[in-house]
UniProtKB/TrEMBL annotation:
InterPro entries: Tad_N. Keywords: Membrane, Transmembrane, Transmembrane helix. Residues 46-92 form the Putative Flp pilus-assembly TadG-like N-terminal domain. Pfam families: Tad. The keyword Transmembrane applies. It comes from Geodermatophilus obscurus. The chain crosses the membrane at residues 48-69. This is Putative Flp pilus-assembly TadE/G-like. The lineage of its organism: Bacteria, Bacillati, Actinomycetota, Actinomycetes, Geodermatophilales.
């Protein structure tokens, strides 16, 4: 309702006491805001999609890297187990000629020839393929070095298609008496 002075007001019904008082309406308290489309005027338009794609790409590389690292670790463990077995086989094969000639001292005598023969026999019977190996002995302890090239999962991505060189070293002492 508009009063005689041109003010807007709301009248609440009258009653036996006379006409209803006029409650003045105030104008808006906040300034008017113009609607602006954030897509058209924003300098960051479309920046979320590349960010999300980069995050997914990083996550995929991390997952593939974890698989490749696990595969490399398991290949190294297989080679280490084969190399350990070869060292134990070499340490358990004594030089029979020296044992019969001089008898058994505090430990079984080992020679380079018997150590190499035992390593070759063990690796030929094993399930793990070994590309290179060497055996050394000081007469009571044998050291065996093994190596092989393996293709790991996603090696084309992380190694450029080259195989991974895996190496292992194992040592064992000849059995001792008393």
């Amino acid at each position: 309702m508009v009063t005689e002075t041109g003010e807007r007001c709301v009248a609440w019904g009258g009653g036996p006491w006379g006409p209803a008082p006029c409650v003045r309406l105030r104008g808006p308290t906040l300034p008017a805001v113009q609607a602006v489309s954030p897509v058209v005027d924003s300098p960051e338009r479309g920046s979320a999609l590349p960010f999300v794609l980069v995050c997914w790409l990083v996550a995929a590389f991390m997952a593939l890297g974890a698989v490749a690292a696990s595969d490399a670790f398991l290949e190294q463990q297989d080679l280490q187990a084969a190399c350990d077995g070869a060292a134990l086989a070499a340490a358990n094969r004594a030089d029979e000629e020296r044992v019969y000639a001089a008898g058994v001292g505090t430990s079984l005598p080992l020679t380079l020839e018997t150590a190499r023969s035992a390593v070759a026999d063990h690796l030929a019977d094993g399930a793990t393929a070994v590309d290179t190996w060497s055996a050394e002995t000081d007469g009571s302890e044998v050291t065996v070095r093994c190596g092989r090239s393996v293709d790991i999962a996603f090696g084309w991505l992380f190694l450029g298609g080259r195989p991974l060189q895996v190496d292992a070293v194992a040592g064992a002492r000849a059995p001792t008496l008393g």
